[in-house]
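Researcher: Next entry in the queue.
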Amino acid sequence: WTWERDTENFYSAFVEQLFLEPGDEDPTWSNLQELLREPSRNLLFDHRHLDEDTSLDLEPDCADLPYFLRAYFAWKVRLPFAWRQCRRGRDGRPPACEETPADQTTPIEANSELEAFRRVMRVIARNVHSSSNRTVPQDEHSDVYPVPLTRDALRPGTIYADPYGHILVLAG
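Model: Structure for this entry, 172 residues:
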């Protein structure tokens, strides 16, 4: 598989279903794994037939969340996934990322496919931070890109970098 219109649409449907709630509720969850363990929410529940969703423990912070969602989805449906090591910005210097991304093809010693995925997620958690999603719009070496503020462009899975520091993922 490759990331194309159909897989992007599937990813959007996955994110939307995962966070779907009745319109009059304002739910909160303690962690991502709480949602992934619910077969009614998770369109990819046990998709790999490894009993993976009951044994994973994914608890991303706000900066990790977009990466965790995308990596989880990519792993489940065997899509490529990559991320860049980025440096934080400073006064007069915006955040910037390395030219060459890291990806899931880097060999990892593990006893199982599930353990290899866990280790990749730990690497992502150690290397991703809020500046990873705050590069300047023209930066070609970034994991994100600007999207127009239109109903068509703002789909479930779209990342929003709040000016006060949080990273949000549009869910519906």
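Model: The CA atoms of residues 48 and 76 lie 6 Å apart.
Researcher: Noted, moving on.
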